[in-house]
Amino acid sequence: MKIVFFEIEDGEQAYLEEKLKGHELQFFPDLLTKDTVDKAKDAEIISTFRNSPVTKDLTDRLLNLRMITTRSTGYDNILPEVRADKRLVVCNVPHYGTHTVAEHAFALLLGLSRKIYLSVERTRHGEFNHNHLTGFDLYDKTIGIIGLGDIGESVMRIAKGFGMHVVVFSHHPDEKIAKKLGITFLNFNELLAVSDVVTLH
Length: 201
What we know:
The protein is an alpha/beta fold.
């Protein structure tokens, strides 16, 4: 099977070659566009990331195409008329980076709460005073989580480990989940009013 990858980054190619042995693979760092689509002219599968707008005009030029996959959770770069095309299977990655992104969000939060960036910058410039570098504890603070998907839920678990109170805004609040996880669903404005910090997912 011929699979053509667009928007490929360093480190991805070796992994994909290992996992997809026995298939004909081609890798391009380019976006999939009207100017690059011919690189995939014999492809049965194309794989993009989130920056390639996959349009019907492009897929109609790929006569052997049977599947489109995006290496992201979101698939809005694959336009609705393409997703509705019965000859094509459209796939995405429903779960990835859950803990990685949640931990990174907390790394950023700790950087802010402890003024790490400011203190490093001062040190680089030979300033060793600690005036205005007092941070704040996360313990007993309220974190507002906007969006309680997999990543938001992982952030919530980390926040509880820090002893934080958790409030959540979600388009689909579920009181069973709230009770199970020990969280409170609020509307957007209420969340902003009571939160010490807010994280968006």
